[in-house]
Every structure is written in C-alpha cells, then in structure tokens.
Q: What sequence folds into this?
C-alpha cells in the first residue's frame, strides 16, 4: 500500500465522503422515526420522502402474520394492482384497519373488496371501495412500535437524541485525533528521510 501524500489525501477524501453518507442515512432514519412517533399519536400514516406510509399495528387481528407493535409500511397502488390475499390498510368509519383481501366483487360498476383479519374467524361485515384504501402492505418491521411508544415520552426521546448526538461528536473527535496523529507521523517520517 502506498503511503505518499497523494494516496493519503485520496483516502481522507473517501473517508470524509463515507462519513457524510452515514450521517445522511442516520438523519433520514431519525427523521422517519420521528414521523412514526408523530403519526402513531394520531393513529394515522405519514408520507415519507418516497411516498410510502407507515402504521403501528395496535390489535392482534392479523397475527401471526403481523403482530401488535409491529410497524408496517404501505404504498398506494392502482386498483388493478390489488389482488385477493393482498394485505391492505384502509379507513372504515374513521378507524385505520389492516386486513387481508378475501374477495373482490364488481358491484354496480364499482369494485368492492371483502376483507378479513388473519386471526379473525369471520370476514368483516362491510365491503370497502378503492377510495378507502390507504395502501398495500409492502414491509413489516417487527417490534418497532415498542420503540416508538417509548419515544412518545418526550423526555426519553430527547435523552436518546442527546446520546446519539454525543456519540456522533465523540466519533468525530476521535477521527480528527487519528488524522492529526497520522499527519504528525508523516511529517516526522519525511524529516527522517531527508536526514
């Protein structure tokens, strides 16, 4: 491995770029967790930067597929992309529900969906239209809802955020000290070579 000044500078630039990428990813993750916390307080989904929505599951109607305190990610899709056996999140009488589609009917030129929770014995007594559907289930993040509930306590949330910032600051300080030592060693090595 080369240890000349040019290669050292290239490695430094790559390290700085990697650090920036990691910081951006951390900010995006923190941003999304904050949005999940906010949305869970009102039992609504949130739009993130990619247009998806996240919901915290608060009932056992979809167990064992989706459990209480899991966070699900949904995406709004066209009505012809929704099939029997898909899991959807919809609004019925002001309540957000996540169930599986069991039947699709074309009644009066309007598509109607019959749904059922995996853990329920009978289908839902109502049929829903496409307009009620918030999105199709894309991903389940197990137990993230527990973390969100903990973070709903604003004091705990601020303490955790402060700890994250302290660790980021300590990491940056350590990196700067390492770079300083490398530069100092490089200068000393250059002086030895000249003598």
A:
């Amino acid at each position: 491995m080369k240890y000349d000044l040019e290669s050292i500078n290239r490695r430094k630039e790559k390290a700085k770029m990697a650090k920036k990428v990691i910081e951006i990813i951390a900010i995006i993750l923190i941003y999304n967790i904050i949005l999940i916390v906010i949305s869970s307080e009102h039992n609504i989904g949130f739009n993130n930067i990619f247009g998806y929505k996240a919901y915290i599951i608060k009932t056992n109607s979809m167990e064992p597929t989706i459990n209480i305190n899991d966070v699900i990610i949904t995406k709004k899709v066209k009505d012809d992309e929704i099939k029997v056996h898909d899991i959807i999140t919809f609004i019925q009488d002001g309540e957000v529900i996540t169930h599986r589609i069991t039947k699709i009917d074309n009644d009066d030129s309007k598509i109607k969906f019959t749904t059922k929770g995996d853990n329920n014995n009978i289908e839902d007594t109502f049929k829903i239209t496409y307009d009620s559907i918030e999105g199709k289930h894309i991903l389940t993040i197990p137990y993230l809802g527990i973390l969100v509930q903990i973070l709903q306590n604003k004091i705990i949330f601020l303490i955790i955020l402060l700890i994250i910032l302290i660790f980021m600051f300590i990491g940056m300080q350590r990196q700067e000290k390492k770079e300083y030592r490398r530069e100092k060693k490089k200068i000393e090595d250059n002086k030895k070579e000249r003598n």
Summary: The radius of gyration is 26 Å. The domain at 46-143 is CATH 2.10.109.10 (Umud Fragment, subunit A).
